[in-house]
Design a protein that fits this description.
alpha/beta, Rossmann fold, 2 domains, seven-stranded mixed sheet, five-stranded mixed sheet, 14 strands
Amino acid sequence: MFICIAGKNQCSIDVIKILAKHKINKKNIFILPNSTDKGRDTWQPSLKKYALRNKFKIVKLDELYEIKDLIFFSLEYEKIINVNKFESKSLFNYHFSLLPKYRGCHTNFLQIFNGEKYTGVTLHRINKGIDTGNIIDQKKFKIMLNDTAYDNYIKLMNCSVKLFKKNLYKIMKSSYKEKKQILSKGSYYKRSSVDYKKIIKINTRKQTLRIHNKIRSLIFPPYQMPIVNGIQVKKSIYRKDKIYLIESSTNRYKNR
């Protein structure tokens, strides 16, 4: 049996550590980093760097196609998998939403933007569609009222690792159950559905929960922070029907 971990960030590294605890032969573990991973740590540790340092075999996607006894795990992997090219049928993805809701892209942003109270991670089979495969398991948690998109993403990564640990043995033994998604009860968003550059500036004096959700959904310091009424902010607090913002250059609260 061969196992491939494809993807990026701390969550992909943490699941490799779980494999090591299960005493899986290192020679049977393949690593498929995203193309943007140049082997250097950024705001997240590099999967490629970790694999090289710990002497795991780094592979290309097409090297996996003819391996019949392969288990493929995607954790934030960048490409859509063509299942027809694989000999293996054990292809799985950890999607950062409670499927069938929020299939596709921008899952973390959209759930906060839309004011969802709960989110989570779904373990599902990879099929011909985009995040449409049968659900194997889900782990759910509450989105806290003042959590930013950055805060929530960290929680999603941690959640995916817990879900991986919970289901690894079942996947290896093919002892899991599957549940078909009811796609009509879900939603799908393509990459072009959100243009962060167009919505990053917010000009308003309204003190509504909807505005608070919009602000915090855009707070992701490694990539962007919203500009509210001309001021860049790093935190939005909603309390007693009022919004309090923390400017990026200070730790002081200001009511807006």
